[in-house]
């Protein structure tokens, strides 16, 4: 082979050509299939965006209705999966549960590995879009010790997830339009982000021709980490800690700047955005609106705003072009909706699902080769074996 260049973290290495998401980190632009994220968040619904990402075009009314109907037909998970949910301790981290359950679906849907035709692929896509919200809801209900149940196919996709999550036994469930709209918008903003860590994972696992569900399960594990999707949970825990500490933001700013301290300002910085994260801008405005509409006053929102203001005026953050990212304000909205902190990254996964699917599908349709990076070997050169008695 030729010369191997090492690029830790793939900071300057492209892994594929893609026609799904355009991102200009210098200008803070994010577009799905050419449509700006601002416009989609304002005007589209999550399922429309899912269709757009996966199939490349905004759906007509007929296409949208058929897509939704096909997803609804698949919205039942084999009842045996409940036994797997049962086996987890209540204290299990929801991301570990979600990744396991997604992997478990391969056992109940063996045909989901078929990609011989567009139809095969379509079937896997609607299957996972139908079943994933059930897994998300069951993960939360397990945590809360609530009975596991299926949704209501008369509801919209996002309404249905919320009902499955929060319906209490023997109580009528009332939808809150503010929460439905806010979640819809958040899911759209999380739906794709080109070749990030979890998406690259989905593509690389899928490149070995492992099936869609197995690839997604790996992507969920990648998303879990606090440097990636897990940051939304870490942000809220950080804001809570600051509040407990009497609101001393300066102390945490100092810790984040201290190179001998591993603490980072969670929800700040991004590999690609070096100006601002357009998603964070929308989510910040949305946090104000949603908390206002729900009549929630959360001192944590003020701490977050204070921290942002300080960071944007601090030369450490300014010089390194560190700005609030998508995870900085999202948790405040999830919390106002009644979603527990350790479920935040699960909500991110629910939003990212269409993006992962779209990227996996593109990778398979383009018949990309197996992902297999090279290395530069820096270990010992050739050595002779030493018997144990002589070591
Ligand atoms: N707090 C303090 N310093 C930081 C931070 C931060 N949040 N982020 C980066 N830096 C510093 C870093 O120490 C380095 O300084 P120096 O040049 O003096 O060594 C410089 O900024 C560049 O950082 P890097 O780690 O080389 O940048 P990266 O592109 O490898 O990492 C990142 C990007 C997002 C992992 C990182 O900014 C980070 O850890 N942020 C906190 C976690 C977070 O919010 N993650 C969510 C990312 S966005 C959505 C998602 O993926 O889910």
From TrEMBL:
- Tell me the SUPFAM superfamilies matching this sequence: Citrate synthase (SSF48256)
Q: Tell me yes or no: is Signal among this UniProt entry's keywords.
A: no
Residues of the active site? 270, 327
Q: Which domain of life is it from?
A: Bacteria
Catalyzed chemical reaction(s) = oxaloacetate + acetyl-CoA + H2O = citrate + CoA + H(+)
InterPro entries for this protein: Citrate_synth-like_lrg_a-sub (IPR016142), Citrate_synth-like_sm_a-sub (IPR016143), Citrate_synthase (IPR002020), Citrate_synthase_AS (IPR019810), Citrate_synthase_bac-typ (IPR024176), Citrate_synthase_sf (IPR036969), Citrate_synthase_typ-I (IPR010953)
Citing just one GO molecular function, the answer is: citrate synthase activity
Listed under GO biological process in this entry are: tricarboxylic acid cycle
A cellular component term from Gene Ontology for this protein is: cytoplasm
Keywords, in A-Z order:
Acyltransferase, Transferase, Tricarboxylic acid cycle
Q: In which pathway does it act?
A: Carbohydrate metabolism; tricarboxylic acid cycle; isocitrate from oxaloacetate: step 1/2
Give one Pfam family, short name only: Citrate_synt
What does the similarity note say? Belongs to the citrate synthase family.
The record ties this protein, via PANTHER family, to: CITRATE SYNTHASE
Name used for this protein in its record:
Citrate synthase
């Amino acid at each position: 082979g030729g010369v191997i260049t090492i690029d830790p973290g793939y900071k300057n290495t492209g892994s594929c050509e893609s026609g799904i998401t355009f991102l200009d980190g210098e200008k803070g632009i994010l577009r799905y299939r050419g449509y700006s994220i601002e416009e989609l968040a304002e005007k589209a619904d999550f399922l429309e965006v899912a269709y757009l990402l996966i199939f490349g075009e905004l759906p007509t009314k007929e296409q949208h209705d058929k897509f939704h109907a096909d997803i609804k037909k698949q919205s039942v998970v084999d009842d045996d999966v409940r036994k797997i949910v049962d086996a987890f301790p209540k204290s299990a981290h929801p991301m570990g549960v979600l990744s396991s359950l997604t992997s478990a679906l391969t056992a109940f849907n063996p045909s989901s590995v078929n990609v011989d035709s567009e139809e095969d692929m379509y079937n896997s896509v609607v299957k996972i879009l139908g079943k994933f919200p059930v897994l998300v809801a069951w993960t939360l209900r397990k945590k809360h010790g609530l009975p596991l149940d299926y949704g209501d196919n008369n509801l919209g996709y996002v309404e249905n997830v919320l009902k499955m999550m929060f319906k209490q036994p023997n109580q009528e469930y009332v939808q809150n339009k503010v929460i439905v709209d806010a979640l819809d918008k958040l899911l759209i903003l999380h739906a794709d982000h080109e070749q990030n860590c979890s998406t690259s994972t989905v593509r690389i696992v899928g490149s070995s021709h492992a099936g869609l569900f197995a690839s997604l399960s790996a992507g969920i594990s990648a998303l879990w980490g606090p440097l990636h999707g897990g940051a939304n949970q870490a942000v809220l825990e950080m804001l809570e800690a600051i509040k407990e500490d009497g609101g001393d933001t300066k102390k945490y700013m100092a810790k984040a700047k201290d190179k001998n301290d591993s603490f980072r300002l969670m929800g700040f910085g991004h590999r690609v955005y070096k100006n601002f994260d357009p998603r964070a801008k929308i989510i910040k405005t949305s946090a104000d609106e949603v908390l206002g509409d729900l009549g929630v006053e959360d001192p944590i929102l003020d701490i977050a705003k204070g921290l942002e203001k300080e960071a944007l005026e601090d030369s450490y953050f300014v010089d390194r072009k560190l700005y609030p990212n998508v995870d900085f304000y999202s948790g405040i909205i999830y919390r106002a909706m009644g979603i527990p902190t350790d479920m935040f990254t699960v909500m991110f996964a629910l939003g990212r699902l269409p993006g992962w699917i779209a990227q996996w599908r593109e990778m398979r349709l383009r018949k990309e080769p197996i992902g297999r990076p090279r290395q530069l070997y820096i270990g010992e050169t050739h050595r002779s074996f030493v018997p144990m008695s002589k070591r």
